[in-house]
Amino acid sequence: MLGHFKMDLKAKAEQYFKTFSSKDLNGLASMFADNIMLRDWTGDATGKEKVLTANQDIFDAVDTIQVTPLTLYQEDNTVIAEIEIEVNGDEKLMVVDVIDYDDNGLITSIRAYKG
Asked: What is the pTM of this model?
């Protein structure tokens, strides 16, 4: 049961992964709240500009990156996604993203865990 939060955030998460895989920084910017926080195994970034810079750094470091969601769960304003990330067509990472959204459907935080 979704509780009070009725928006289909799983579809928004799928669109986020497609946009990320396309290395579309402008598309990502439109999905992020101004106060977004990103935390992964390489570090932290807070605020839209810093998170966009962190994403650009990832895009610059790889030729291709493909994110495939394997399982998505939604509880209220949070989506938990088990994803496979393929880097440069050969390296594969298994990751769990915990993505929080505000009431407007903008991403307020992404916490990524490798393993």
From this structure: 0.93
